[in-house]
Amino acid sequence: MNERFQILSLDGGGIKGLFSAAVLAHLEEDLKIRVTDHFDLITGTSTGGIIALALASGMSPKEIVHFYVESGPYIFPQQRFADLRHLIRHKFSPSNLKKTLRDCFGEKLLGDLHKRVVIPTYNIGDDDVYLFKTPHNDRLRRDYKVPIWKAAMATSSAPTFFSSFTELDHLRLVDGGVWANNPSMVGIAEAVSMLDIPLSSIRVLSLGTTDELKSRPKCLDHGGMWHWRKEAVNVILRGQSIGANTQVQHLLGKDNVLRIDPKVPDGIFKLDKISEDELLAKAAHESRHVSPQVKDIFLSHFSEKVFPYIPYHRVEEEKS
After folding, report:
1. Which residues does 2 contact at the CB level (< 8 Å), separation at least 6?
2. CA nearest to 132, candidates 41, 49, 35, 12
3. Dihedral angle at the C-alpha atoms of 229, 231, 234, 239, nearest 10 degrees?
4. pTM to 2 decimal places
5. Which residue among 25, 36, 236, 266 is least packed, with the fewest CB closer than 10 Å?
6. 200 forms bridges with which residues in the sheet?
7. pLDDT for position 316
């Protein structure tokens, strides 16, 4: 098989997902396209998972931007003593996130999505990875019955920020960012193992949520738990993201991968708090810069002409 297969990969990052959605919205407007027309598989983690599910359900990036602008303050309310509570309890009530996602997706199921999707989460009860998938292979016979909002809740239930999600078969699911905050390798593994796509056919557009320029203090070189308490999570997330991108480039070749994740000053954006105007300005600038590359690398491919998505459960229903 020599036909191209294109993957859109969307990083986690909390409310910074507004950046990802805004970049896609600008690309659609500037290039006069619908982004999803050019990708055969969408994978997203945490906030990227929400965006992936929204895109696959038919929402435009512009509508997703509106979703973040309107819902962000409700999901992440800035309350007095929140940081103090955060020491012993999850920082935010998951009920606000749940209501927002249910209002957005209703009771539509993963089987109702229009594109192939893979959404990472993690099962802390069984200490194992957990992936939500559309029925794009005849082995995938369960997830299509899962409401979209439940998959979105599970992948975005960031430890210490939200409680684990337990409303699916009593599983204890948390944010997929604990192992795949940059899910580009997840998408490649799915394409190769479940869809029999050769590596030589794959191209990836990998979209981050901005990358902070950090100066690591010298005390970390010999420090213990106290010294690493503020740095460990960031180092782990950044390390796995860089590692995933390096692996993707190694497997596919640098010319077949476009990573959009601009550097920003340390502390300017947080998972639960941003300067909305600054983040949108960064998205406008970055999208203008990468637009020619996106056009040259990805836009000659139309997914429905080459790899049309036909859910297996619908094929079986038609046969019966």
Report:
1. 200, 201
2. 49
3. -120
4. 0.91
5. 266
6. none
7. 66
Angle (CA) 312-35-62 rounded to 5° is: 115
How would you class 152 by CB atoms within 10 Å of its CB: exposed for 0-12, middle for 13-18, buried for 19 or more? buried
Q: Which tops the pLDDT comparison, 3 or 7?
A: 7
CA distance 20 to 64: 10
CA 214-220-223 angle, to 5 degrees, is: 155
CA distances 87 to 39, 207, 237, Å, are: 42, 31, 20
Q: What is the pLDDT of residues 18-40, one digit of tens each?
A: 999 999 999 999 999 999 999 99
**Structural Rg of the chain based on CA atoms:** 19
110: CB partners within 8 A, 6+ apart: 117, 132, 133, 134, 135, 143, 144, 145, 146, 147, 148, 151
Of the candidates 1, 14, 22, 11, the residue with the CA atom closest to the CA atom of residue 205: 11
175 CB-side CA count, 13 A: 22
What is the rounded average pLDDT of the residues 181-197?
A: 97
User: What is the total residue count of the chain?
Assistant: 320
Residues 216-242, mean pLDDT to the nearest whole number: 75
End-to-end CA distance of the chain: 31
